[in-house]
Amino acid sequence: MTESGRLVLRSSASKDTTPETGVILGRALAMDHRRVVVARDYMRSSTMMKDALVAGLISSGADVVDIGYVSFPVAGMFASRGDCAVYVTEYREFGRFSGYVLMNSDGGLFRIDQVRHLDRVFDEPPMIPERLGRVISEANSVEVYNRKLLSLMEHDAECGIVLDCNCGSSALSAPQILNAMGADLASMNAQFDRDYTVHSLIPADSDLRDLRQFIGSDPGTVGIALNRIGNLMTVLDEKGNVIPDETVLAMMILMMRPKTLVVPMDISSLVEDAFYGRLDIDMKLRGEAPEESELKLVRTVPNAGILCDEMRANGAELGYYKGGFIFSDISMAPDAIHASCMIAQIAAANSLVALTSSFPAYYRDTASYRLLCSKDDFHRLMDERIGGLGHLYMSNRYGWRVDMEDGWFLVRINTENEDRVEVLAESRDRAYLAGMAEVAAELVESCSKGQRIISSSSGSPRESYALQLVLS
Questions:
Q1: What is the three-class DSSP state of 390?
Q2: In contact, 178 and 171? CB cutoff 8 Å
Q3: Which residues contact 385 (CB under 8 A, 6 or more apart)?
Q4: Number of helices followed by number of strands (H, E) in the chain
Q5: pLDDT tens digits, the chain, 472 residues: what are they?
Q6: Buried b vs exposed e over 292-322: b needs ≥16 C-beta within 10 Å?
Q7: Contact predicate 471/455, CB 8 Å
Q8: Would you say 472 and 386 are in contact if contact means Cβ atoms under 8 Å apart?
Q9: What is d(CA 16, CA 304) in angstroms, rounded to the nearest whole number?
């Protein structure tokens, strides 16, 4: 196939996916994977797109393990039955056709280099196989997952829960497990509707209206809205307020007490304080804190594939990425069904309203600056100058993350607009945040122009907060 005829293969669904993409993807995967697990959601085009993928796989000699209609976490768990797995799912905003999500055998998403590796199909067409592949059906994958997850739940969940499954495959597991845990459960949209439309992967505020009405009519009830495939969720407290994902993560950390946690570079200090046991709050079911010497926090780039690599390399029990909670005791796939069970256990022993209101407040400041020099020059200047800050910790793995005594800031080039530089700063002290943001702004502006930093007069915010820059 000519260069102009190439199709971009991705590790997640995309707007330009077609059935022809599925055939090509199957041929590409078969070059290195002899046994591929295939699963799909309930949306209208997913069966057609699955059939196209299977045609490409078996025509190139690869065997297919078809586990049928399942949620994303079930596909992640059963990815180990093959060399890799493909989950076929329809993202509404990407048009009529479902897309393909590529998983490694432990459920973690393909990295970008793995996806690019599949392009060899255009340069090295597969040889005609000696035999066609075969299709093997697995009929009990959902039941196996449900039993496994239920066995991991150490506490009952005797509380009121309103669960919205958004008419998707998450309804195959979440209601059954929560009910078995003792929850007083009211399920919404638990039927399978191929034409049911949610406007975004994570429910918007307007999508939560019915959920809030249920919560309001039954005092003490909490709400959980799962997306159709069960890899993302939204949690509402007893007053119908949405609990931010990082606050949900902090609660789960306090309950689990993992020894190793992998998170993106821009994670809130709330998560880190929960991990290191710095939060003085009254929470029942709070796990026993490990020795600080046993704790390992890994900050990584905001990429799901790389985050999973870090979890594997460090033996992490818990990981988080863009609303996805990853529990390594089942798979490396984001698992909102598992997360909802943990939240149910916490809600059974605590008021979520009281618990979240006891967490300290963290303030953030964001800014964007125009990049006036080349990226290479900006990187060089930042590396030269950022070491002059009186920091406690600094990393330049993805942008530049600098931890100070009472806060941190992150400098990174915008991935969608490489002419812009973003600065994100966070602190529990508004005044400290303002001084830190000023220092970060002066540093970024000078580096973006290729300029030296001019020392400020005594008494500046930089000096009063021990953020004096050492001039190069």
A1: coil
A2: no
A3: 443, 446, 447, 453, 469, 472
A4: 16, 19
A5: 333 344 445 555 566 678 888 999 999 999 999 999 999 999 888 999 999 999 999 999 999 999 999 999 999 999 999 999 999 997 655 556 788 999 999 999 998 889 888 888 877 877 778 889 999 999 999 999 999 999 999 999 999 999 999 899 999 999 999 999 999 999 999 988 877 765 556 667 777 888 999 999 999 999 999 998 999 999 999 999 999 999 999 999 999 999 999 999 999 999 999 999 999 899 998 888 889 899 999 999 888 889 999 999 999 999 999 899 999 999 999 999 999 999 999 999 999 999 999 999 999 999 999 988 888 889 889 888 887 777 778 888 788 999 988 999 999 998 888 889 999 999 999 999 999 999 899 999 888 876 554 444 333 333 333 333 322 2
A6: eeebebebbebbbbbbbbbbeebebbbbbbe
A7: yes
A8: no
A9: 21
- Which tokens is 327 given? 């529990």
Q: Please check whether residue 28 is in contact with residue 53, taking contact to mean a CB–CB distance below 8 angstroms.
A: no
**Burial per residue of 9-27, b for 16 or more beta-carbon CB atoms within 10 angstroms, e otherwise:** bbbbbbeebebebbbbbbb
Answer left, alpha or beta for residue 61, where phi above 0 means left and psi between -120 and 50 means alpha: left
Element (H, E) at 293: none
Q: Are 263 and 300 in contact (CB under 8 A)?
A: yes
**CB-CB contact of 323 with 202 (8 Å):** yes
Distance separating alpha carbons of residues 192 and 43, to the nearest angstrom: 9
Q: Report H helices in 325-457.
A: 336-349, 352-357, 375-385, 430-448
Two structure tokens written together for 139: 């009929």
3-state secondary structure of 439: helix
Q: Which two tokens stand for residue 244?
A: 């931010």
Distances (CA, A) of 215 to 17, 240, 375, 399: 39, 6, 50, 42
Residue found under tokens 């594997």: 312
pTM assigned to the model? 0.89
Residue 198 contacts residue 227 (beta carbons within 8 Å): yes
Alpha-carbon gap, residue 62 to 22, rounded angstroms: 14
Both tokens assigned to 57: 């796989």
> For residues 122 and 73, is the Cβ–Cβ distance under 8 A?
no
What's the CA gap between 21 and 124, in Å, rounded? 17
Query: Measuring CA to CA, how many Å separate 377 from each of 253, 373, 438?
Result: 40, 6, 22
